[in-house]
Amino acid sequence: MSKQHESAVVSYSSSDSLNARNEIFDLLRSYPATEEETERSLGLFLRGSLLARILAVRDLYARIVDLPGVIMDIGTWRGQTAVLCENFRAIYEPLHLNRRIVCFDTFEGYQGFSDKDKATELHQDGTYGVGGESYSAYLAKLLELHEKSNAMGHNFGKHTVVKGDCRETIPQYFKDNRNEFVSLAFFDVNSYEPSLKAFEDVWPRMVPGGIAAFWQLTRRTIPAEAMVYSDNILSKVPHTLRRCETYPGLCYLVKPAS
Length: 258
Fold this sequence. Notes:
Blueprint: H1 15-29, H2 35-40, H3 48-63, E1 70-74, H4 80-92, E2 101-105, H5 133-149, E3 159-163, H6 166-176, E4 182-187, H7 192-202, E5 206-214, H8 224-232, E6 240-243, E7 251-254
Parallel strand pairs: 1-2, 1-4, 2-3, 4-5
Antiparallel strand pairs: 5-7, 6-7
Helix pairs in contact: 3-4, 4-5, 6-7, 7-8
């Protein structure tokens, strides 16, 4: 079973581009500055591909600023999208203390691959694990620290990290939090049945104008989201479908007002 992220073994870049990327990594590791200066200088080492992803998350966040509801990151993996959303919350709506962010993941790797899925060495049950319970606690602490370092940081606790199979944890979350509804949900589960179940659980709790975003909707190598969309959403669920301008792989559904 592969323990690697696909970015370490799959690339569409030339050898020159890969060499340049490795040199950037080397310069980051040897950057001659204090920790404070290094933190303020991360833009020196932020490559365009990651910046495009950050801008895409920002664009979706900006679309729901005037909507109430929690943000869900389903298949959060290492939690980068959730951390970005916390910081966008602090930038765009620092006084919105009810904008909660909820992360769902097994933290032990993918689950739910079946005959419907094209399992590969990189994408199958158990790949993309990050340490289980220990990483769940690490992410929860990291989110808390980001929140405390932002405006109104003394009023913290707006994040929840939920470990487990989302087919079980999302229904339980709504059972435990009957008041919650959703403004924005990111889906990155990448197996058919869990992707479908997660969408079916979240969509009824999503507000009009809310956004359901799929990271892999148009990728051939990870077809689960596309199959779920074609089989169960395209002609059956009223919505508008768009793709992000800076990161075409991130596509999103907008729930209509009626």
